[in-house]
Amino acid sequence: MIQSFNPPVRTLMGPGPSDIAPRVLAAMSRPTIGHLDPAFIQMMDEIKQMLQYAFQTKNELTMPVSAPGSAGMETCFVNLVEPGDKVIVCQNGVFGGRMKENVERCGGVAVMVEDDWGTAVSVDKVQAALEQNPDAKVLAFVHAETSTGAISDAKALCALAREHDCLTIVDAVTSLGGSELRVDEWGIDAIYSGTQKCLSCPPGISPVSFSERAVEAVKARKTSVPSWFLDTNLVMGYWGAGAKRAYHHTAPVNALYALHEGLVMLQDEGLENAWARHDKHHQALRAGLEAMGLKFLVAEGERLPQLNSVFIPEGVDDAALRTTLLNDYSLEIGAGLGAFAGKVWRIGLMGAACTQRNVMFCLMALENTLLAQGISLEAGKAGQAALAVYQ
C-alpha cells in the first residue's frame, strides 16, 4: 500500500527551486478560504501592492499569474504579439530560445540577436537590429539568464527600445528580489518572474507587470488573445481594483498565502538590502570556489550573484559528484544546460538559501567530494577564503 510522501530535507543550491523560508511554509498551512472571500480579496490587494514594490513600479496591471514562470512568459507574449508582428529576440542562453518559440507560436516573426552563452546581451548588436528593423514591435530579452548566470544591462536595452518606439518584454525570473531591477525607471513594458528563486516561495506562481503602453497595445489588438486563461483583459476582472471581483478561475489560495508571506519578508528586509545580501554572499562563495581552483563561466562584470556557473575540473565525474552531494550531504547543486551540460555546475544563492551558513556548507561539501575524487587541492583553504570576505 502506498504511504504518505515525506520528502528528504535538502539544502537547495541549484538554479531553482531554492530553499523556502520556514515562515512561507507555515503560511501555506493556514486554513483555506474561498477565492472570492472578502478577506482573500483584501490579501490580493496587498500582494499587488507588494509586487509593485518588488518590481519598483506603479503599474496597475501587476499581478501573480496562477502558474509557474513559464506561464508568466507566455502571458507577456500572447497578449502583446499578434500574427505577423516582428519581435527582436535576444538569445544568450536557454531562455532566450524559449522566447523565440513563444513569438513563433503567436504567429510573430522572430529576428534573432545572438550572443555567446555565458556573456551578456550585446547592446551594440541590439541597436543594430533595431536600426535594421524599424517596423519591430517588441524587443524581448532575458535580464538574468539562469542557464549560464549572466546578467544583461536591462536599463540600456530598454532605453534603446524606447528610442525606436519598441515595446519590451523582459524575463526577470531569477533577478526579481535578488538583483537591482527598476521597472518604471528603466521603462520596462512587460515583465515576468517566478516565486521559486529569490522570493523564497514554492514554485507555481508567476508575478507579471504591464506598463500603460503595454496595456494600450493589448487593447489595440486586431485579433483575440489566443489564450483564454492568460488574456489580461479577462483576468484583470479578478485581479483588478475594488472589492467586487469577477470570477475568472479558482486561484491557488494557499500558494498565494505563501507569496504574500515571502513578499512581507522582502518588504521587512528592504529591497536594496536584499540585493546587497545576495551580492555579499556571492562574493564569499566566489572567493571559496576560486580558492579551490574553480573558474567561473561568466566574466566578473556580467556575473549574476544568485546563480554561479563554474567549470567542472578535468577528471571529475560530474554526475557522480552531484549524486554524492545529494546522498551524503543532502545538498543539491545544478548541472549545466545545453552546450554546457557536463561542463559546468550551476550553484544557486537565492532567497532564503542565500546565507553564510549555506555558503560555508556548500564549500565544505564540495571540497570534501572533490578530494574524494582525487582532485588536488588544499583542504580548508576554500572556507578560509570565504571567511576572509565575511570578516
UniProtKB/TrEMBL annotation:
Any one GO BP annotation for this protein: glycine biosynthetic process, by transamination of glyoxylate
Domain of life of the native organism: Bacteria
Keywords tagged on the record: Aminotransferase, Pyridoxal phosphate, Transferase
Residues annotated for substrate binding in this entry: 346
Name listed for the protein in its UniProt record: Alanine--glyoxylate aminotransferase
Segments passing through the bilayer: none
Positions where N6-(pyridoxal phosphate)lysine occurs in the chain: 197
Pfam families named in the record: Aminotran_5
Cofactor(s) the protein needs: pyridoxal 5'-phosphate
Family, as annotated: Belongs to the class-V pyridoxal-phosphate-dependent aminotransferase family.
Residue stretches making up the Aminotransferase class V domain: 32-336
Cross-referenced SUPFAM superfamilies: PLP-dependent transferases
Highest classification ranks of the organism: Bacteria, Pseudomonadati, Pseudomonadota, Gammaproteobacteria, Oceanospirillales
GO MF annotation, one: L-serine-pyruvate transaminase activity
